[in-house]
Amino acid sequence: MRLCRKGGITPPLQDEAMTNIPADIKHEIEKLVKDLSYHCYRYYVLDSPVISDSEYDRQYRHLKELEEKYDYVLPDSPTQRVGAPPLDKLEKVQHTEPMLSLDNAFSHDEVREFDARVRRFLKSDEDVEYTVEPKYDGLAMELTYKNGILYKASTRGDGYVGEDVTVNIKTIKAVPLKIEDVDIPEEIDIRGEVYMDIREFEALNREREREGEPAFANPRNAAAGSIRQLDSSITAKRKLHLACYGIGAVRGIKFQSQWEFTKWLEKARFPLPVLMKLVKGMDSVINVIKEIEEKRKDFSFEADGAVIKVNDFGLQKALGIKTREPRWATAYKFPAHQGTTRINEIIASVGRTGTITPVAFLEPVRIGGVTVSRSTLHNWDEIERKDIRIGDTVVVERAGDVIPHVVAVMMEHRTGKEKQFTPPDECPVCGSAVERDEGGVAFRCIGLNCPAQVQQRIGHYASRAAMDIEGLGEKNVERLYSRGLVKHFVDIYKLKKNELLELPRYAEKSAQNLIDAIEKSKQTTLARFLYSLGIVHVGEYAAKLLARNFKDLEDLYHVKAERIIEIKQMGEKITGSVSHFFNDPGNLHTLKTLTSMGLNISNPDYETGSSEKRPFEGMTFVVTGTMPKSRKEVEELIESMGGHAAGSVSKSTNYLVLGEDPGSKLQKAQSLGIKTISYDELMIMIKGEDRLF
Ligand code: IVH
After folding, report:
1. Residue nearest to atom 16 of ligand 1 (CA)
2. Rounded distance from Cα 256 to ligand 1 centre (Å)
3. Looking at the chain, which terminus has fewer C-beta neighbours within 10 angstroms, N or C?
């Protein structure tokens, strides 16, 4: 896997005219950007790299060094894919051409009816040319390129207005930041589907379950949740893909047909849907649909149908749109993956935070090429609503959803011998009491030392997004736990190589690897560490927010709820949970033990400019005259404190910072009654030695 750099603040893109760097360096940077973009394309679109990962990384690092040294960053540089500072909200974007939806056909006959309608409309007896491709179950996107450079990416939204997700889209490596190798239009809107592979979705859900966060119901929701993140460094971790299938507004190039446009996309290095075909006549269309349906089980992604489009753009125009759907396209929907089977058993499964989830064990049944033997029943409200009992014959579905779920009980199969499954009074693993969540539907085991919870807490602590200790997966945690070697994550740091060697399946090398991985993980960040602790409701994002607002771990000790709730986006539940955690003497003792074991927790996320530390928020300054530092430096300082540094004095100016020989700005400020301050007074305001406001 190629390096995916996270976080980091993107430097401002340089206007070429402003930069004054040696021509050979400029040339080298341009060549590196071009080469690396090509290698990205080979790797992520063609799946056929021509250089090794380490060579790619070497060139990437070299480019990054040059960019930093010369402050020269091209807009299509691969370093621009790393994510940008988090946003407060996603801005709205109006689509130039509305993004439509598709009419559905639920059988081959209905596809034939669609063709008949097309020909009736065109008053034609001849076979029509169609393109056919899978219908990806993801989220529709529009990517706007201006003069070949990716300018904006937006979600479909309501079809007319979507949300700006440009920084997030850039983290998808297969998305070209620049159009290459083809005629470049002045402006073009390219449409496609952002989706998540099934395996990636399952891994993500496993991780979420471990951390006590709700699982995504299907890959589509996971893709939507990932692309609509305010923090693009989270999107960057989610391994999203794009398949491009459509065109919106365009200026400066003309295409005759869907197929011609697709060929252009392909040449321009855009990722396309798999198995896309151009065919003539309905029999061929049906054959392609059958082929897609047959191969669907091997797809790495969820496809819920096939899309059939009239190929010729002239004919598309003639056919036009009816309300919100074009007459020139339809979506053939695959029948839902359903099966009937029997519930043999229902068990109460205990999660990391003690949440108890009912899980149905089914008589194995094949649905859509996959054997299904388990299904989550989500919670007891769901069991009650559907009246699900042990021994029931049920309809199970894997539609868009990869995790199978029970659709309904087949009441006609009831014999009267079925057994209801009531919530347990005590934890099935440790026997502790079970409590119902306040107002919620969840039941929770309150046993702090419940082995099910403890093992999952340790696993969570070591997981990739947390302390990232390679070799401490679920199975190994279970082994170390059952031998009494690791009863708490603090014990991880006490592990000795010779202890490991006494266990089955550990040899010299694997034992050493684990010890090394543990040692390596000691260098970590506050955001990771907070996430690792498994504080209820604190997922990756909340951990990051905390790290941005607290200088270091000690800063959180005994924290008052009032301080957390002040942080923008922090809700009451997280606040309560975090302050409770950091005021618990046992937890504080654990944290002190951990830090004494050589953990080195840095905090690159800490923002000196976070809300309460941004004293100039909402204030406008104008800097004029000669002062000890250059005007630019003073303005940067003001901006770093949250202020706005304007170029000229107006009614909205709060302070004029006055150096020597100020000139006309002073007169203007005086005429408008604006307060003037000296450089020294500005410094006092910044350092807070005195309160001027
Ligand atoms: S073409 C006029 N092609 O399906 C609409 N859409 O139900 C043109 N979709 O919003 C859309 N795969 O999100 C097209 N190969 C494909 C598609 C596809 C998935 C989605 C898209 C659209 C929805 C319409």
Report:
1. 135
2. 20
3. N
Q: Which atom of ligand 1 is nearest to the CA of 137?
A: 19
- Taking the C-alpha atoms of residue 262 and residue 182, their distance in angstroms, rounded to an integer, is 12
Average pLDDT, the chain: 88
- For 53, other C-beta atoms within 10 Å of its C-beta total 13
* DSSP letters for 416-427: S--B--PPPSB-
d(CA 43, CA 52): 10
What pLDDT sits at residue 585? Answer: 92
Q: How many residues does the chain have?
A: 693
In the reported structure, the alpha carbon of residue 200 is separated from the centroid of ligand 1 by a whole-number distance in angstroms of 22
Sketch out the chain's domains with CATH numbers: 16-80 (1.10.287.610), 103-333 (3.30.470.30), 338-447 (2.40.50.140), 451-521 (1.10.150.20), 525-611 (1.10.150.20), 620-687 (3.40.50.10190)
Q: Helical H runs in 271-347?
A: 282-295, 313-319
Mutate to test the pocket of ligand 1, among 100, 130, 245 (most ligand atoms within 8 A of CB): 245
The minimum-distance atom of ligand 1 relative to the CA of 140 is 13
pTM: 0.60
Q: Please tell me the least confidently modeled range out of 76-90, 325-339, 379-393, 500-514.
A: 76-90
Cα 589 to Cα 591: distance, rounded to the nearest angstrom: 5
Report the share of the chain in percent with pLDDT over 70.
Answer: 93
pLDDT of 687 reads: 64
Paired tokens of 325 = 């759907």
| Cβ–Cβ < 8 Å for 333, 303 | no
> Which two tokens mark 559?
């924290």
pLDDT of 611 > 60? The answer is no
Q: Find out whether 450 and 354 touch, Cβ atoms under 8 Å.
A: yes
- Residue 125, class by beta-carbon neighbours within 10 Å (0-12 exposed, 13-18 middle, 19+ buried)? exposed
- Which residues are CB-neighbours of 687 under 8 A, at least 6 positions away? none
The 10s digit of each residue's pLDDT in 382-396 is: 899 999 999 999 999
Alpha carbon distances (Å) from 407 to 71, 162, 345: 58, 33, 17
Q: Please say whether the beta carbons of 157 and 163 come within 8 A.
A: yes
Q: Would residue 333 show up in a list of annotated catalytic residues for this protein?
A: no
Please say whether the beta carbons of 352 and 413 come within 8 A: no
**Bridge partners (DSSP) listed for residue 340:** 395
Q: Residue 48 has which token pair?
A: 């056929």
Candidate of 100, 131, 135 to mutate for ligand 1, largest count of ligand atoms within 8 Å of Cβ: 135
* Residue 326 backbone phi and psi in degrees, to 5: -70, 145
Residue ID of nearest Cα to ligand 1 atom 2: 100
In a 13 Å sphere around the CA of 613, the CA atoms on its Cβ side amount to 12
Give me 573's structure tokens: 């539940």
Does residue 656 contact residue 666 with C-beta atoms inside 8 Å? yes
The torsion angles phi and psi of 283, rounded to 5 degrees, stand at -60, -45
Strand partners, 656: 622, 676
CA distances from 203 to 1, 240, 437, 543 (A): 16, 13, 27, 20
CA of 684 to the centre of ligand 1 (A): 58
Say if residues 354 and 447 touch (Cβ distance below 8 Å). yes
